[in-house]
Amino acid sequence: MSLKILLTVFFLGIGLSMDAFSVALTDGLTYTDINKRKSFFIAGTFGVMQALMPLIGFWLVELIETIAGSVTGNKAGEIASLIVVWLAFALLLFLGIKMLIESIKEMKKPLEEKCAKKFSIKEVLLYGFATAVDALAAGVALHAGLSTVVTVWLHVSIILVLTFVISLIGLFLGKQIMRLLKGKYEIAGIIGGCILILLAVWVVISHYLPL
Fold it and tell me: How far is CA 156 from the centre of its chain?
C-alpha cells in the first residue's frame, strides 16, 4: 500500500471523526458524572461505530455486485449513501431539538428543582449510531476506489483509532468548557443542542458539496 493511499485514508478518518468529536464535546458539556471509564466507553463506542459503518457500506456494495453486477452495485451504493445522509440528518436534528427543549424547560424551573444530566449508555449508543450512520457512504467510496478486502480492514482500523483519540479530546474540551460555565447545566444543554443541530445541517451540506 502506497504512502498516498495511507494519507488519503488518514484524512478520511479525520473527516469522519469530526462528527464524533462534535458529539463527544456535547457529552463532555452535558454529562456531569463522567469519569475515566465512562470517557473510554464513549470514545470506544464512537470509534467502533465510525469504523463499522464504512465496513458495512463496503460489503453491501460487494454483495450486490456479486449478485447483480457492478453497475447495479454502484447504483445501489449511491442510493444507500443518499438514504443514510438524510437518516443521519433526521436523527441528529431530532436529538438536537430534544436537547434544546429539555434545557429551555430546565431554565424555567426553580433553582431547587434543577438537576444535572447523568451519563446514559442508551443515549451514548444512540449518539454513536447517529454520528456514524452517514459513514456508510465512506464504505461505498472505498469500494469505488477499488480497495481490496485486506486494505479495507486497515482503513477501518485507522478510522477507529483516530475517532477514539479525537473523541477523547472532544470529551476533555467539553468538560473544561463546563467548568467555565460553573455548573450552569441548562446553558450547557442549549450549547450541546445547537451543536447537534448544526452537525445535522453539516452532514447534508458536506454530502452535496464535498470539500
Answer: 14
